[in-house]
Amino acid sequence: MDQSVLDEIKQSLEDEKTKLEKALGDFTSKDSTIKDNYRSEFPDFGNDEDENANEVAEYSDRLSLEHTLEKQLRDVHQALASIVQGKYGVCKHCGKAIEIERLKIRPTSSSCVNCKKQLKGEA
Question: Which of 37, 40, 61, 84 could bridge across to 31 with cysteines, CB 3.0–4.6 Å?
């Protein structure tokens, strides 16, 4: 892979990492005991029954969003690590190069289009 393309993708991943960490920081605190883990904060809207119900609903939404963002952040960290290791852009299933266009669109991709289609049962 051309170094300028790799640098562009790495910058895109770094930008995404910053964005995800900021989004997580808006409603969670970083877990100091588990790497890349965050803990959603339970909201406090008051002591009325309606407010308590809203707190539970909001916390549930936060947990779901937290898990989604944590997974995306793990994928970004994994992609950045593979760049450092010199293994970026190689399909984890067949070992062939992942298409540059795919990596530019989705830099966290770890599978080529053909393997991904097979995994999804589309091939």
Answer: 37
What stretch of H or E contains 29? strand 28-30
Return contacts of 91-98, CB within 8 angstroms, 24+ apart.
Answer: 91/115, 93/119, 97/1
What is the spatial distance between Cα 72 and Cα 82, in angstroms, rounded to a whole number?
15
- Ranges of each domain in the chain: 3-88, 89-123
Model confidence over 61-95: pLDDT tens digits? 999 999 999 999 999 999 999 999 999 999 999 99
Contact of 102 with 108, CB cutoff 8 Å:
no
- At 95, phi and psi to the nearest 5? 80, 5
Question: Which tens digit of pLDDT belongs to each residue from 30-40?
Answer: 988 887 789 88
Can you give the pTM of this predicted structure? 0.84
